[in-house]
Amino acid sequence: MNDYKPLDLLVIGAGMIVHDLLLPSVYHLQRLGIVKDISVCGTRVSSLQALKDNTLIKESFPGQDFKPYPALDSDAGGDQALYKTVLSQMAPYQAVVIALPDQLHYQVVMDVLDSNQHILCVKPLVLTHRHTVEIAKKAESKGLFIGVEYHKRFDRRSLMARRNYLSGDLGEFVIGEAKMIEPYYYRFSNFQNWFTSDCTDPFVYVGCHYVDLVYFITGLKPVEVSVSGVKGKFPNGNEAYMWANGRVRFENGALLSVTDGLGYPDAGAGPNEQGLSMFFEGNDRGAVFKHNDQFRGVEYSFIKGRGPANKLFHDINPEFFQLIPWEGEGYKPIGYGPDSVMTNIKYMSQIEVRVDQDPDNAHSVRLQARKEANLKGLMATPENSYINELVHEAARLSILNEGDIALITYEPEPGVRLKHEYK
């Protein structure tokens, strides 16, 4: 399929990830003719205004704009259900991007499915396996595509590792470690209103990227999770797990250690600290790969401070997201972040092209397209990334029980329990 059917697109949420990845990605699709009208629905007019005023986005996408909900001259901020009104105005089988705090995903995803829209949701999709199954069944009954934005699947390093592992060139995974430490300044953002200890933790929020990645590379299912956390308080006084360390055992006995937190120094050169190392065995020898993602080989020192931390010296990351000159107007988003977002939305568009070519069998066409995406496994879907929700459940059960081991079982039905409960 080479042709695309232009789709209207709604973004639900107006926070940091919309600035840093989502809006630039869909703006680029708009100027390529794959996306038509763009709307953004938020709960605060100030957030929508900040998105409108984003200097870098305006410079990169001259003449492009989105319709804000609520209107910028409105006093209707705070309406948590406004997105339902916007959905009611959309034609079916368009595109909706959900960019909200984790604990809000389930209800919003279900509402969007009720409105017969394709979905791209920031990770994690939901926080329980039961909700994943419910969402997958509903999406299938309606022939709707759901993508989950695990963008590390589109990192070329990850794709190389997947090919090398599945071809047998690395042997069998036995042990590894991953790390993702996000910036300290996150503590002063809207995180302090939702990233609380009763709702989430750093392992669930960012460690999930690396658990999904090991599953993506190897196909091995996780069976045990143990997570311990270190609590602190946000400036507004809300308590949160600021740091977390988890250990995940996979079905072949392999172990992955994952360290996460909101504490990379604002004065540090990088945008964060992250990486993955995996060790393997086979044919009487060992094998290894190391993805040192915090070292990108690109260093800049500027005459003016940049970014939220106003830093002069930067270890620039050219691979997740950057805006660069291209043959058109403004700047073009590149990196595995935009690749992930745009691939999912392009696929929604291509599904509708196939439907237009065979309208009498529209539902069967949509089901076949869903099946193909699930089996291919590059785009994360509820069906091919469901292990993440089981890991999230296990992680929360563990961290709230002082790091006790939580077991994940798959037969007869997937579920999670503390290990000592089996004794």
In short:
By secondary structure, this protein is α/β, with parallel strands linked by helices.
Topology:
Elements: E1 7-12, H1 16-31, E2 35-41, H2 45-52, H3 55-60, E3 67-69, H4 82-88, E4 95-98, H5 105-114, E5 118-122, H6 129-142, E6 146-149, H7 156-166, E7 172-183, H8 191-194, H9 202-218, E8 222-233, E9 239-250, E10 255-264, E11 273-282, E12 285-291, E13 299-306, E14 311-315, E15 322-325, E16 331-334, H10 336-357, H11 362-376, H12 387-399, E17 406-409, E18 415-418
Parallel strand pairs: 1-2, 1-4, 2-3, 4-5, 5-6, 7-10
Antiparallel strand pairs: 7-11, 8-9, 8-17, 9-10, 11-12, 13-14, 15-16, 17-18
Helix pairs in contact: 1-10, 5-6, 7-9, 9-12, 10-11
User: Helix/strand/pairing class, anyone?
Assistant: alpha/beta
CATH superfamily annotation of the largest domain: NAD(P)-binding Rossmann-like Domain
The first-level CATH class name of the largest domain: Alpha Beta
The CATH topology of the largest domain comes to Rossmann fold
Could you list the spans in which at least 5 consecutive residues all have pLDDT below 50? Answer: none
What is the count of distinct domains?
Answer: 2
C-alpha geometry: globular
Quote the distance from N terminus to C terminus. Answer: 54 Å
CATH architecture of the largest domain, please? Answer: 3-Layer(aba) Sandwich
Radius of gyration, CA atoms, in whole angstroms: 21 Å
The side-by-side strand order for the widest beta sheet comes to 12-11-7-10-9-8-17-18
DSSP helix fraction:
25-40%
Strand content: 25-35%
DSSP strand tally: 18
Q: How many separate helices?
A: 12
Q: What profile does the largest beta sheet have?
A: 8 strands, mixed
Topology pattern, helix = H, strand = E: EHEHHEHEHEHEHEHHEEEEEEEEEHHHEE
**Average pLDDT value?**
95
